[in-house]
Amino acid sequence: MISRLSSLSIFFPCRNEKGTITNLVFKAKEVAKALTDDFEVIVVDDCSTDGSREALVALQKSIPELRLVFHEKNRGYGGALRSGFEAATKDFVFYTDGDGQYDISELTKLAEKMDDNIDIVNGYKIKRSDSLHRIIIGLFYQRVMSWLFLLPIKDPDCDFRLMRRKIFDVINLTSDTGTICIELVKKIEMAGFKFAEIGVHHYFRIYGKSQFFNFRAVSSTLWRLIFLWCSLFLTPPVLKKNK
Fold it and tell me: Is residue 33 part of a domain?
């Protein structure tokens, strides 16, 4: 069990999250201080148009640990995550979405689950707090993905993950859409890294709109996932280097 981390990067992908992102940054700093003396908080702004960027620039003046990555063109959820992983410099990397549907303080639960034999601790939603149609879509997506990709975790769309930075010296991510979550989990497993899981709470979105969970978006994503499946299972991924 690791209750204190050697160093930690926390990052949030942000796309029109002005109503939640600044509060998340403040909370992230407080949680990070409880876990390590060496940390950074990163926000990847994926071409927001609601004033998120301006709010973050102002916030950076009072939080020196805050680093900002700006996309001048929308690169999608996958593009935002890839930028976050590339920007992270510390031994451990944690990310969650900028919409405030997870409690950042529960990162401590993931840190307690991490030990010398574990490379990634993935959260799973104890109970999904969403509208009925999103719950149905989410359960369908979760079941299909677990079956299709033989995933090692129960909740692949729970974006609440603590990982060792060395993972990204080995695997190469290519997705620019929400398919990156499946690509990430499967490539980590295929590279031989070890998983642990722990339940976390999920809350109603209080600001903005979901970029993914509607029937049209999921239908489009399923087609991309077919191509991802072919690239993973018919042509084994090329690693940057051996683990």
Answer: yes
Sheet containing 66-70: which strands, arranged edge to edge?
Answer: 66-70, 39-45, 8-14, 92-96, 160-164, 120-125, 195-200
What's the token pair of residue 150? 């033989």
Between CA 29 and CA 41 the distance in angstroms is 7
> Kind and range of the H or E element at 240?
none
CATH code of the domain covering residue 38: 3.90.550.10
The CA-atom distances, in angstroms, between 169 and each of 89, 128, 180, 191, 236 are: 11, 33, 17, 11, 17
DSSP 167: G
Residue in the structure block whose two tokens are 């603590």: 162
For 127, the domain range is 8-233
**Is the torsion defined by CA of 89, 156, 123, 131 positive or negative?**
positive
Note whether residue 243 is domain-resident: no
Q: Please write the tens of the pLDDT for every residue from 67-111.
A: 999 999 999 999 999 999 999 999 999 999 999 999 999 999 999
* d(C-alpha 57, C-alpha 64), whole Å: 11
Q: How far apart are CA 212 and CA 224, in angstroms?
A: 13
For the stretch 186-227, pLDDT in tens is 999 999 999 999 999 998 877 656 555 555 666 667 788 888
Domain assignment present for 174: yes
| CA 186 remoteness from chain centre | 14
CA 107 – CA 160 distance, rounded (Å) = 8
pLDDT at 177: 87
Q: Give the pTM.
A: 0.91
Residue 239 lies in a domain: no
